[in-house]
Each structure stands twice: as C-alpha cells, then as structure tokens.
Amino acid sequence: MINIVIVDADYPILFNYFSKNPLLFSKLNIIAVCVRQTVTKEAILFNYPTLKVYDSYEITNWDSTYLSHEEIIQYRSTQLKVEKFYTRYSNEASNISYLYYNSLAFWLNIFNNHKIDSLVVYDFEHGTPTDSIPLEIAKRNGITAITLEPAYSFPGSNDLISAIHSFNSNQYINLNEIDSHYNSVNINEIISSEVENKTSNKSNMISIFFKHMSLTLSLTSKSLSIPDKYRHIFGINTKFYPLRYILMLLFTYKLKKYYIKHSTKMIPENEKYIMYALHFEPEASIMNRTIYNNQIYNIKMLSKYLPKGWVIYVKEHPHQFNYSMILRGFMNQKLEQYRNPSYYNELIKIPNVKLLDYRISASLLLTNNKDKKSSQKINGNLQAVATINGTIALECMQHQVPLILFDSNSALYMKIPEVFNVKSMKDLMDTFDVISKLNGYIDYGDYISIVNQYLVKITDKKELELPDIIMEKILRPQ
Questions:
Q1: How far apart are CA 104 and CA 129, in angstroms?
Q2: What is the dihedral of CA 64, 67, 72, 78, to 10 degrees?
Q3: pLDDT tens, 319-365?
Q4: Cβ distance 71 to 104 under 8 Å?
C-alpha cells in the first residue's frame, strides 16, 4: 500500500483520477484529501464518507495542535513564501502570520502522526498554505512530493497540457523513461495557438466598464452571502469592491497611457538588441517558484554585461493592461503595488534600456516581418529574448531565436541544451560571449521530441489521461 496525501483543486482532478482507476486506487491508503472549497469536500464525502477531507478554511483555522519554537524556526523560509502569497490580497500582517501558523500546525499534525509515502499536489507551487507548507515538510522528511502543473491550452478546446514535477529534485519527470510505450501529447499542437493568442488588449475602457459592471455587481452580491470566516481566504472586501473595481479600471487606463507615452514603436535599422519579455504581475507562479523573480533586477543584470552597442527593449505583458483582469481579486486589491509609473521609470533609468510598445506582437519581433495592420517594419536586429520563463520560450525555439532564461528550472525548457540558463553573473557573462557570435540564430534541434517526453493531458472534462502504471511508479517511495 502507498500512504498518500492528496492536495486537489476546486474540482478534484487528482482524486477523481485515482478513484476512477480501481487497480491503482486499491493500492492507495489515502491519509488525507485537501481541497479549497467546502462544496468540493462535501462532494467527495458523499461517495467516500470515511475519508479524511479538509477544506482551506479548516486548514487555515486549525486549533487542535500548536507549534513549538523549533518548528516555527525550522520552517521560517516557508513562512516567507506563504506571507508573500497573501500580500497579493491583504496588508494585514498579523492576520497573515496567524493563518500561516495555524496551517503549519495542521500539516505537521498530519505528517507527524501518519506514515506518509507520497504527497501529490495539483497545480504549481503558489505559496499557499495548501501547497508550499506540505511540499516543504515532505521534502525535509524525504517523502516523495510531486506537483501536477498545468502548462498550456489546446487550440479551440479546454484541454490542458500538463507536466509532473518532482519538488524534491526540482526536476520534471520524464514519462517516457518510466514507460517507453507511453504516447504523450504533442507540443506542436499548441505552439501556433500560443503565438496567435498573445495579442494586445485593444478594448475600449468604457465598453469594458459597462460590459463587466453587471458581472462585478453580481460577484459583489454573491460575495455578500459568503460567511465572514471565508472572506480572508479569498481577499474579498465586499464593502468597497465596486468602488475599488472602478478605481482600478481608471488606474489601469492611466498606467497604459503612461507606458505607451514612454515606449517606442520603432527600433533603429540594424540595431542589435535583446528583448526582455516582462511577466504579468502579481503572478503567484513566479513569486515563489523562481529565484530571480524581480524583473527590474534581472534587466539591470542584463544591462551590466550587455555587449557594447546593444540595447535592451523591455516589452510589457499584454495582460498587464487587460481590463478584464481587474475582476480578479488580487488584481483589484494590489495592482498598483506591482505596476505603477515608478516601476517603468526605474526601468528607463537603467543604461541601454528602453520600453517597447506592448501592442507589437511577439511573433512580429521574432520574425522581423511587417505588421499587417500598421505596415510597420521592425528594423532592429534581434539577438536574443530574455525572460524568467513562460510560453514565449516556445516561440523562440520555433523561430530559432536565442533564449536567455533566469529560471529554467521552473519550466520544461531546462531540458533543452541550447537554452541559456542564468543562475549567476558568470553564467550571464558566458551567455553573452556565445550569443554575441550567433547573430540572432540558434538551432534547437529536435526540441519538440524532448519536451513531449514530459507531457500529460487533462481533458476538457477535467480528466487526467495517464496510465495508472506510470503514476504508481512515480508515487512509490524511492
């Protein structure tokens, strides 16, 4: 028997996968299932009434056991992750640490009182009390800990391409090494759609406002019915939510205008340049999963070792100015703390750094083709693209553009030998020594075959398609 703890999503993708594979399910001793919402918990208990199932509220308000000084000290780095996650929603530092202490006590109670062989978590590590804490405890105790990480969408469907990541080794698991007959999904199916979907948000603010105001009021009225005990988990401020939404729409509109005013659409003919693709922020998947997660710092490093005569063009993520994103709780609560005029001013102050109009498509820059709508010619000579991680990496490989990643371990691209992985200043100096001789071209070889070995599909019906024999081998203690 494999003693397992499952941390699932709003919809129990992992639990349903196990329960619908009878042979594998019979080999599992499920210690606990943790889900975000009470309704998900109740659905599982309806069919499996003897299981131990906990929702987020129970975890963050645990009071059956308490922490010692030693335990708090031992997991201080985990506390930083969780508190950083919560700062996307709240400034209430004392309440945030209170939720963390309760959650750590809950998880230590689970791990200290049961023999656990494996922990499996759905989604990236975001820094929540239901992912970072159990993952860190498992790692410290030599317990197999894996995350099922959604990565890409299929064109025209709700299917997800995902990968399985070993938290302990910080490596993605090669499924074909476990079973050479496993037929994975093909990353080629989504590359073209990713390129096309990275378009700018050109919607008029007024039309967006009226389009979403009814939804905003609906969300507000629904949030009024949510018990007070749950509101701190979701960052809901029902009293000011409609006003906050309006203010953030106006803030985003002004910020977009400020960015456009200080950015350029033109790159001088034959100018050699690096494009730094900014990540959308606040984005939890880079806040706690990556090491070089401050993008101003990354760009300053690039500038420090940039070859003479080259320029860094920083391009904002198109979602950063997408009015629809304001509907997300963390956006309307904290947006101005992650992006504001001073952020862009700080970038402009860095030597050899310029802002590039975010409305220019990435594919146009990677191919140097004409913009069909503006008939604009991108005259510059692109030498490489730099970013933390992200799907633009696939576009670079498709167009054979050199790629600099500041945290390749948080993406499958770490497996591509031609990708330049920056983990130190020396790495960056060595990277520029090579890139300066490539003239903006690199052959990535059969990168598709490499990436495909790690992929698994979650269908539009939220069903994980993975042979149970592979999952069993992943879960069994090594």
A1: 8
A2: -10
A3: 888 877 666 655 556 677 788 999 999 999 999 999 999 998 888 88
A4: yes
The one-letter code for the residue type at 126 is: H
CB 24 within 8 A of CB 30: no
439, burial (CB in 10 Å: exposed 0-12, middle 13-18, buried 19+): exposed
User: How far are the Cα atoms of 58, 118, 120 from residue 111, in angstroms, in the given order?
Assistant: 16, 11, 14
Q: Are 196 and 167 in contact (CB under 8 A)?
A: no
Q: Which two tokens stand for residue 15?
A: 């639990």
Q: Which two tokens stand for residue 319?
A: 């979602």
The C-alpha torsion from 57 through 60 and 63 to 68, rounded to 10°, is 170
**What is d(CA 416, CA 445) in angstroms, rounded to the nearest whole number?**
9
Report the relative pairing of strands 455-458 and 464-465 from DSSP bridges. Answer: antiparallel
Q: Measured between alpha carbons, how far is 388 from 391 in angstroms, rounded to an integer?
A: 10
Question: In this structure, are residues 348 and 316 in contact, taking their beta carbons and an 8 Å threshold?
Answer: no
Q: Give the position of tokens 């496993």.
A: 182
Q: Tell me which residue of 438, 432, 387 sits closest to 413, measured CA to CA.
A: 387
Place of tokens 């960056």: 428
Whether the bond into 282 is cis, omega within 30 of 0: yes
- 197's enclosing H/E stretch is helix 188-197
If one counts every other C-beta atom within 10 angstroms of the C-beta of residue 69, the result is 7
Mention the CATH class of domain 198-447: alpha beta
Who contacts 191 (Cβ-Cβ below 8 Å, separation ≥6)? 394, 395, 398
pLDDT digits (tens, 9 = 90+) for 368-413: 744 444 455 566 899 999 999 888 888 899 899 999 999 877 888 8
Domain boundaries of the chain, sorted by first residue: 2-184+455-475, 198-447
Sheet with 353-356, strands from edge to edge, namely 263-264, 353-356, 311-315, 272-277, 381-387, 403-405, 420-421
Classify domain 2-184+455-475 by CATH architecture: 3-Layer(aba) Sandwich (3.40)
- Predicted TM-score (pTM) of the model is 0.85
> Which residues have CB under 8 Å from 451's CB, separation 6+?
187, 412, 413, 415, 416
